[in-house]
Amino acid sequence: MPESRTRWWALGALAIAMLTIGLDTTVLNVAVPTLADDLHASTGQLQWFSTAYTLVLAGMLLPAGMLGDRFGRKRLLVGALVLFGAASAACAYADSAGQLIAARAVLGLGAALMMPLSMAVLPVLFPDRDERARALTIWVTSTAIGLPLGPIVGGWLLDTFWWGSVFLINVPLVVIGVIAVSALVPESRSSTPRSLDLVGVVLSSTGLLGLTYGFIAAGQDGWTDSATLGSMLGGLALLVGFVAWQRRVAHPLVDLGLFRDRGFTWGTLLSTVVNFALFGLIFAMPQFFQAVQGTDALGSGLRLLPVIGGMLVGTRLADRMVAKAGASTVIAVGFVLLAGGLAAGATSGVDTSFGVTAVWFTLLGIGLGLAMPTAMSAAVGTLSAERSGAGSALIQALRQVGGTIGVAVLGTVLSSGYHARLDTNDLPAATAGTVRESVSAGVATAEKLGLQPLLDSVRGAFVHGMDVMLLASGGLAALGVVLAVLLLPRRAPRVEPEAESLHELVS
To answer: Whole-angstrom Cα distance, residue 267 to residue 378?
Structure first.
């Protein structure tokens, strides 16, 4: 076990590595218009820039945790960082849409290895529950801050350099991560290596891939599309088969016994619910700032700074509050603030000032800072160092798929609200179809045609859809309050590995 100071420096290296994943999740959003022009990408190709990354990430999370437990978490984490950096460079210098899609898929593979493996070394580095909780707060915060930071960094890079810089920014961060992890993180693996569950790998990967693709397609093609429904049902059937197989096989890919622990089950579920609010916010608000209020990409990103500030405050408060009030109380308070912030956001209008928005952004950020790391700590706190890889991968897989489902559902709510208030009765069919595609297309069409009534209708309709979506997110956050109070243990159980086991786990 490394010395105390070395352990915290190692955590810093992991936080830097995870910051790249948070950035990469949202930085692409502001670059899409530029990519469409420079790479002559079709609408379908633009969608696959994100989809290729998300699908590979979702499909490979569970095998990644198992491979780390078996072959060594540090070794695979360093390899994943190198792969992520190389794929980032390949994205930056892609000269066709097809090359960028392929590079994004490889990027997803690197992220799928990095996420569970970087989390899996925390129980090894910090066997004490209280230290582990503080370490996890830093780890979660580094990822979460990267999400709203992505549009800010991306907007500045696009205004200053060429579009490839939004990917190239990952490379120096990855280099720092590789050097620091190699020097500071001890190697660890399971003391009882299990045989590779190939059937479980195939069933889980294809099932998660099918389910994730189905929900992504639902947001694009509608919930009644036959291919969408087929993908969802096929993925769900494979996952049901995966669970049945895990109950039978001698050395399962996933320890289903983890779900017998209330802290693991409800901590994972509640951390996934938090993602809904964050992803819904990042999905809708940049469109509101740019298409409705006329800011540029950088200005839109900078308007998310109150969320980051609130999160930093919330994470500092969470550390102190958990020790006095317990995890369930802190998570419940976080969800109360989330629900309140989202409900306030649901009263937004076309001309709402940024000062008003900044207030509820800050409130929401504090709620995120309280709820997200505390819920994750409740789940991770049940994992021993022995099963940290597979357990961390399971947490990340559920959060990833849950987040994808949440974005698809919330996107549908926003789209339905937009279409319900949009007035296109006097427009030609082709023009009306363009206006209905998105608020950006609607605003561009109205401005091109010089139709102020259409412009007012498009902006008002989008704000209505956004308000309904934020209200739905707030309702889910309110449900999170109830779940946290009734179902989550007040304090996480202490998990201390035996000395003999810890000696075998850390080389």
So the answer is: 5
At 170, give phi and psi (nearest 5°). -65, -30
How far CA 200 is from CA of 63, 104, 231, 252, 401, in Å, comes to: 9, 25, 19, 7, 18
Residue-wise pLDDT tens digits, 184-240: 887 877 666 666 778 888 888 888 888 878 877 776 667 788 888 899 899 999 999
Fold of 254-495: Growth Hormone; Chain: A; (1.20.1250)
Per the CB < 8 A criterion, the answer to whether 213 and 51 are in contact is yes
Q: How far apart are CA 460 and CA 464, in angstroms?
A: 6
Q: Per-residue DSSP letters for 255-323?
A: -GGGGGSHHHHHHHHHHHHHHHHHHHHHHHHHHIIIIIT---HHHHHHTTHHHHHHHHHHHHHHHHHHH
Cross-strand partners of 188: 506
Q: What one-character-per-residue DSSP string does 397-427 give?
A: HHHHHHHHHHHHHHHHHHHHHHHHH---TTS
pTM: 0.79
Rounded CA-CA distance 65/112 in Å is: 9
Domain spans of the chain, in order of start:
1-197, 202-240, 254-495
Residues 6+ apart with CB under 8 A from 149: 19, 22, 23, 304, 308
Instruction: Give DSSP secondary structure letters for 9-54.
Output: HHHHHHHHHHHHHHHHHHHHHHHHHHHHHHTT--HHHHHHHHHHHH
Amino acid identity at 12: G
Please tell me the distance from the alpha carbon of residue 59 to that of residue 235, in angstroms, as a whole number: 11
Q: Which phi and psi angles does 506 have, rounded to 5°?
A: -105, 120
**What's the CATH architecture for 1-197?**
Up-down Bundle (1.20)
The helix or strand, by DSSP H or E, that contains position 368, with its residue range, turns out to be helix 354-380
CA distance 336 to 176: 38
Q: Which residue has the tokens 């308007």?
A: 303
pLDDT tens digits for range 32-77: 767 777 887 766 677 678 778 878 887 888 788 777 777 778 888 8
DSSP secondary structure code for residue 150 in this structure:
H
- Picking from 275, 76, 273, the residue whose alpha carbon sits closest to that of residue 190 is 76
Query: Would you state the structure tokens that stand for residue 460, as one six-digit string?
Result: 């008002």
Residue 172 C-alpha from the chain's centroid:
22
